[in-house]
Structures are given as C-alpha cells and as structure tokens.
C-alpha cells in the first residue's frame, strides 16, 4: 500500500463552508472513493487555509483515473474548485501534487 500526502490551499473566506461541505460528503462520492482504491483518506485543514490530504492506495494514478471516470467526481470537483487558490482552471484533484516521503516509522 502506498502512502500519499498532498497540499492544497483553501481560500480564507471559504473555510467555514469547506468544513461544512466535508461534514456532509455525498454518499455516492464516498462510495466512489472506496470503489476506486482510496483508503484511510483524511483531510486536515489549518486556519490559514493550508489543506493537507493523506490517503493510502495500491496505485495513486489508478485511483485518480478511476475517480476521473465517475460522474459524481465531476460534479464534486466542479463544486469544490471555487474553494481553492492557485488551481489555474484545474479541478482540485488535478492540483494534487504528492509530497515526497522522507521518513516513515512503521
């Protein structure tokens, strides 16, 4: 299982709404994530808008590609895009650049 960590930046004026939306993630979105290989997925949000994502998956590119093929992901990404800074027209899932793991305590 590969561990993946990524960063995004939530707009300061959208933090409360971003939190609310993630307290109510659509059931079909949750099912799509599970079905496409996203495991142990967490999002952590700092008060300045820094968002840290973490997940475990067998193949990160396959997990991204699987989600890209779902209708629910297209709807979710379109609704979430306005919450983020510096996406340059991309959807949030296209802006996820995995960080390099430099240490892991097993």
TrEMBL record:
Any one biological process term the GO annotation gives: rhamnose catabolic process
Q: Where are the transmembrane segments?
A: none
This entry's Gene Ontology molecular function terms read:
racemase and epimerase activity, acting on carbohydrates and derivatives
According to its UniProt record, what is one Pfam family this protein matches? rhaM
Q: What is the protein's given name?
A: L-rhamnose mutarotase
